[in-house]
Amino acid sequence: MTLDNQIILPALRNMKDFEKLLDSPYEYIVLLDLHIGNLKNITTKAKQHKKKVLLHADLIHGLKADDYGIDYLCHQIQPEGIISTRANVISKAKEKGLLAIQRLFLLDSSALNKGCALIEKTKPDYIELLPGIIPEIIQEVHLKVKIPIFAGGFIRTTQDVESAISAGVKAVTTSNKELWEHYTPIHGLK
């Protein structure tokens, strides 16, 4: 996965923004909070608009994030990648040749240590750290695991984005439409 100048990964939380995102210059998009019944149509339409879909498997309503559910995503939906907090989902995504993005919630030092141990076990292609507004922790995780990082959660301002990028993340996931518009793959940082 090469993001080129795409430092924002737009995360779609509602369908009213879907059409707008399809007409955007973003190549990679993140789909959250979808109903399994809508998943095929939405991802097909996204692909028709040359979008590479990253699905958050834990947030698909009606899908159990077990081996059968992930097999369904891999074979029927065929996203570019899968995001999950679950080790089994990450392992299955890697096995099926999809990008595997391990999502970690960093609540305290214990969560940080357990998260780094999990990363060593699953060896995902990318890590998504939440909250993504703590540059020192982003740098610490990167030094420990040497896997490219996305920052997400509480990214509200251009300063938050720039701090995360300065800390070494590859991209920022956000559902904030103003940030989608401010940072475009064509223009990069304004």
Automatic annotation (TrEMBL):
| KW Transcription regulation (keyword) present | yes
Coiled-coil ranges per UniProt: none
Which named protein is this?
Glycerol uptake operon antiterminator regulatory protein
| Protein's UniProt keywords contain Transcription | yes
Record function comment:
Regulates expression of the glpD operon. In the presence of glycerol 3-phosphate (G3P) causes antitermination of transcription of glpD at the inverted repeat of the leader region to enhance its transcription. Binds and stabilizes glpD leader mRNA.
* Keyword entries, A-Z: Glycerol metabolism, RNA-binding, Transcription, Transcription regulation
